[in-house]
Q: What sequence folds into this?
C-alpha cells in the first residue's frame, strides 16, 4: 500500500461537493466573518474525512462491480492496490477523525453527520439498487451539507437554498445515471443493477424537467420580495443568467459530449463551467457585499 493509492481511495477531488457547507454563510452575507468562516472550514475538513470513509465503504462493497467498469476498475480496491483489511483500517481512522472534529465544533452538526453516514450505509447496501430513490438520496446528501454549514455557524437556512440545492443535485445525479446507461448500451455490461429502472428516454425527460425547475426556482428566488428586502437589492435576478448558462452547458455535456458521469470532474476540467461559476460568484458577491 502506497500513499498515492490511499489518496486515490479517499477521492479528494470529490471534496469540491463539500463546499456547499460554506453556502449558508455566503447567502447570509457573513462570509467575511473570520470566526464563522473558520468554523465552516473545519466542518469542511471533518465532513471530507467522513465522506472519504463512506467512499471507501462504497468501493469495498462494489469491488466486483467496479472490476467490470471501464473506468472504476482502476480504483485502488478494484485493482488490488489496497487490500480489504487495509481499507477497513483506513475507514476507521477517517471516520474517527471526522466525528471527533465535528463534535468539537457542534453536537448538532455531528448528529447531522451521523445521519449522513447512516443514510449512505443504507444506500451502499440497499437503496442504490432502487431507481429514483438512489438519485434522491444523493441529492439529500447535498442538502445535509447545507444543514451542517448552518449548524456550525448558527446561520439559519433559507428554504429557497435548500430547495434549489436539492433540485440541482438531483439534476446532476440523473446525468450521472445517464452516463451509466450509455455505458450499458455501448458495452452490454450493467455497471449497476439499478440501471434496469432507467432508460435514455426517461432520463432525458427527467433531466429536462429538473433543468427547467432549477432555472424557474432560482429566478423566483432572486425576484421574491423576501430576498429583495433582506439583501436590499433588486438586481439579484441578473445572476440567473449564469445559472441558465451553467444548466445549458451541463445538458450539452450530457447529451452531446456524453460525458456526465462525474460532476466533480466536469467542474474541475470544463473551462466553460468554471467561467460560469466564477461569473456567478463574482456577480452575486458584488450585488450582496
A:
Amino acid at each position: 500500500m502506497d500513499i498515492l493509492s490511499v489518496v486515490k481511495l479517499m477521492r479528494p477531488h470529490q471534496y469540491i461537493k463539500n463546499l456547499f457547507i460554506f453556502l449558508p454563510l455566503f447567502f447570509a452575507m457573513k462570509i467575511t466573518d473570520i470566526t464563522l468562516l473558520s468554523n465552516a472550514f473545519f466542518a469542511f475538513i471533518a465532513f471530507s474525512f467522513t465522506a472519504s470513509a463512506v467512499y471507501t465503504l462504497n468501493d469495498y462493497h462494489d469491488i466486483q462491480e467496479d472490476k467490470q467498469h471501464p473506468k472504476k476498475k482502476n480504483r485502488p480496491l478494484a485493482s488490488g492496490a489496497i487490500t480489504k483489511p487495509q481499507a477497513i483500517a483506513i475507514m476507521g481512522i477517517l471516520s474517527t477523525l471526522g466525528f471527533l472534529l465535528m463534535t468539537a465544533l457542534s453536537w448538532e452538526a455531528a448528529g447531522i453527520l451521523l445521519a449522513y453516514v447512516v443514510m449512505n450505509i443504507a444506500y451502499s447496501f440497499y437503496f442504490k439498487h432502487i431507481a429514483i430513490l438512489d438519485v434522491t438520496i444523493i441529492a439529500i446528501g447535498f442538502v445535509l451539507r447545507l444543514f451542517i454549514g448552518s449548524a456550525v455557524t448558527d446561520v439559519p437556512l433559507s428554504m429557497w437554498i435548500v430547495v434549489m440545492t436539492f433540485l440541482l443535485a438531483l439534476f446532476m445525479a440523473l446525468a450521472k445515471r445517464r452516463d451509466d446507461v450509455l455505458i450499458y448500451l455501448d458495452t452490454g455490461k450493467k455497471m449497476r443493477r439499478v440501471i434496469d429502472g432507467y432508460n435514455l428516454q426517461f432520463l432525458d425527460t427527467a433531466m429536462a424537467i429538473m433543468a427547467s425547475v432549477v432555472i424557474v426556482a432560482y429566478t423566483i428566488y432572486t425576484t421574491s420580495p423576501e430576498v429583495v428586502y433582506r439583501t436590499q437589492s433588486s438586481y439579484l435576478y441578473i445572476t440567473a443568467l449564469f445559472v441558465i448558462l451553467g444548466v445549458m452547458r451541463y445538458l450539452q455535456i450530457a447529451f452531446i459530449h456524453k460525458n456526465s458521469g462525474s460532476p466533480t470532474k466536469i467542474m474541475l476540467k470544463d473551462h466553460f463551467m468554471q467561467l460560469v461559476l466564477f461569473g456567478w460568484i463574482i456577480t452575486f458577491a458584488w450585488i450582496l457585499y
Remarks:
- Residues 128 and 134 are 5 Å apart (CA to CA).
- The chain has 14 helices and no strands.
- The chain has two domains: 1-157, 158-289.
